[in-house]
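It would be a great kindness if you could assist me with a short task in structural biology. The full record is reproduced below for your convenience:
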Amino acid sequence: MSSRSSSARSACSSFVSYSTLFISIAPSDQYVEANSVLYGSRAFSFVAGPSLGGLLVQLLAAPFALAVDAVSFLVSALCLGRIAPAEPPTAQRERGHVAAGVRFILDSPIVRAALAATATVNFFNFMFWALFVLYATRSLHVRPGTLGVVLGAGAVGGVIGSLVTGWIGRRIGIGPALVLGCVLFPVLLLLVPLAGGPRPLVLALLFLAEFGSGSAS
């Protein structure tokens, strides 16, 4: 669970940073494959992160789990510090750059639609994950350790999704693949509010929601 919450907290800063360095590291003809590797490693962290996070919360309490999470960010920073890509030169600070960027987005139907779709999905997804753990533990009465194991197992869907992204893009096209992901990702999360009844059924629906949304993302 700590992996999910950490991802949400650092999303804005990390996405701005990595998108700039991404084009310096990956060749333009390998963007899809490189993106698959990037999100595959991120998805793989969701496999181990929730299980370990839930176990730490159950055994040590939340403050100690957050301390371990903070140390993991330091380790990540040390690893990233070993990368030395050829960064593009920084643009000179001038007036009008923000307005020019806004005009570029508004004048590009593809960029405009993609930005609107991802912004909408991310907005409601962050709202969902802000409430999900409390809902699962307090309303569904799932213990933190059990919830971590379920989410960790379900996160395998994200790993599978990253492996088949290139194949799907080649089969139906990048645009249709993006639309498919934007639709399936939030729809499958509806299994969470539908979870109810016997404990095995609740855990199964939570697993399917994580597995399916991870595959679609």
In short: DSSP finds ten helices and no strands in the chain.
